Amino acid sequence: IIATMSLEQAAKIVSDVFYKYAGEDDKKQTLSRDELKKLLQAHCSHKPDSVTKLDKLVKRLDDNKDNQIDIVEFGALIGMMANNCEAGFREGH
Ligand SMILES: [Ca+2]
Question: Which PANTHER family match (predicted)?
Fold first, then answer.
């Protein structure tokens, strides 16, 4: 799959997943904490295993402090996953 997939296609998949979950409540351009949780449960093998870790993850990603994760902020999560998903969720990182 890597041999034939462009980075644009990979980014499109990320974007499709993001907007699928972001569109669940009335704020359709951003992920709420609950939407992020659902997304991770469905699409991430190293999901935060506690409420505290999820809160920390949201806090870490939420650059503009509006308690919503937009597509740019979500990009940081993808970067964390590319770097090492599990480490991104670990305490103290
Ligand atoms: Ca935000």
Answer: PROTEIN S100-A1-RELATED, S100 CALCIUM-BINDING PROTEIN
The answer for residues whose C-beta is within 8 angstroms of residue 23's C-beta and 6 or more apart is none
CA of 42 relative to ligand 1 center, distance in Å: 21
pTM: 0.84
Kindly give the distance from the C-alpha atom of residue 71 to the centroid of ligand 1, in angstroms, as a whole number.
Answer: 9
Class of domain 7-88: mainly alpha
pLDDT tens across 29-40, in order?
999 999 999 999
Domain ranges of the chain: 7-88
pLDDT tens digits, one per residue of 56-88 = 999 999 999 999 999 999 999 999 888 875 555
